[in-house]
Amino acid sequence: MATFFDLIIGNIRTCIVLLQMVCVIIVITYLIMRSRFFIDFQNRALTWKSSILMILLFGLVSIYGTESGIYAFGAQINIRDLGPMAAGLTCGPLVGLGAGIIGGLYRYFITGGISQLACTIAAIIAGLIGGTVYLLNKKQFIGVKGAIITAGCMELIHMGLVLLLGKPFDQALALVLQVVLPMTIANMVGIGIFSFIYMNLIQERETANERDRIRTDLQRKQAELSIARDIQLSFLPDTIPSINGYQISPVSLPAREVGGDFYDVIIPVSQDKIGILIADVSGKGVPAALFMALSRTITRTNATWHKSAVSVITETNTMICADARSGMFVTLFFGVLNPDRRTFTYVNAGHNHPLIFRDNGTKEELTTTGPALGIMDDIRYTEQTTTINPGDIMVMYTDGVTESVNRNNEEFGVERLESIIDEHRCSSAEEIRDVIIKTVNEYTDGQDQFDDITIIVMKGEEHGSFCTGT
Questions:
Q1: Phi then psi for 295, rounded to 5 degrees?
Q2: How do residues 338-349 score in pLDDT, each as one tens digit?
Q3: What span, in angstroms and rounded, lies between the C-alpha atoms of 19 and 297?
Q4: Residue 176: CA atoms inside 13 Å, Cβ hemisphere, count?
Q5: Are the beta carbons of 405 and 444 closer than 8 angstroms?
Q6: For the chain, where do the domains classified as CATH 1.10.1760.20 start and end?
Q7: Of 12, 89, 225, 315, which has the most beta carbons under 10 Å away?
Q8: Contacts of 375 (CB under 8 A, 6+ apart)
Q9: Which of 445, 349, 449, 457 lies closest to 401 in space, CA to CA?
Q10: pTM of the full predicted structure?
Q11: What's the CATH code, domain 233-460?
């Protein structure tokens, strides 16, 4: 009974000593795994130089496992097999075998004992077993659990070799009983900690590679979006031609690199008429931009063929419905200005109501005359006609203006827009446009722009005057 108790206490003490050795080896192997040559193995950039260096480094780890061992029954208790096994599991059979040979030969010629030959062979086998597992797992690390199981099996093989080759057998058996538990536990714990650190390093590198890939993709996409933005901006008129008796001042500010708002001034729609267009595609980003390009092209094409506003929008809706399969739609306001007669005939397809401030102080809204385009085919749109006389101001806008929010999530609203127009009714179209944008920016107080903002300000003038009212 006392002998069994002494055996248990001896095993516990031996385990503690071996685990202390493991801590040192883990630090060494961690530094090895951080080396450029070890990373070459992970990236499959293998060279003879890196292979030899890994063999030497893991071989030195095996030698340390021998030198830091403790003696019992005339033999050494150690964690020599840890180095070759780790080398094989992570770098393959060649490195594992090389490290095992270094550690095994050092054990054979430096220390003696009844387990001399068995321990030498065991170190070599440890590297081969680790490398074989590496190959069987398609040159991938087997993981923490698999590595621990491999280490446990390896130590059982080690003990079997001691019983098989150790002489005399009774001493070999006594040695095995003394060391099998602490050596098995120490090697399994050691390879477990090694594997955990190694898996974290793999994940760290994979994360870094994924981060680099995402960064590259983002840079490429940003470049593509920049090109797309330039292309989209090319759809908008570079300059607004001079129209006798009128000032027209537009602006469009996408919420993202590309947007779904657009405007156009089509000169001429017919011989004596000018088309003015503002629209807002449902959604944001690239899909909205593509739909915007489709809608703008179709509307402009129809405006060159059809004479009336209602025929332009009716045909545009038919064509958009035929091509639109994404469920997107576009609210659109299209009007035909006759500068000579000062009439403005329009169709409002579900768009925000443009505001007209008359020179005499009255206000008018150009209400909806039909639904948004792309929702349903065979829609009957109607057109309305109004006048834009000297001093009259018409502001066309998208909901990005009125639905801009402040830090309290309160919308800018139509009333604020009306107040700005009324307050600056004696200003030029360009000045009114700029003050609207400035006031919206101040209202949002640096908040990210939620939606595209597009504005067209048109003002009637005569002989260069900006305001004929009081």
A1: -65, -45
A2: 998 999 999 999
A3: 75
A4: 22
A5: yes
A6: 2-202
A7: 89
A8: 321, 329
A9: 449
A10: 0.59
A11: 3.60.40.10
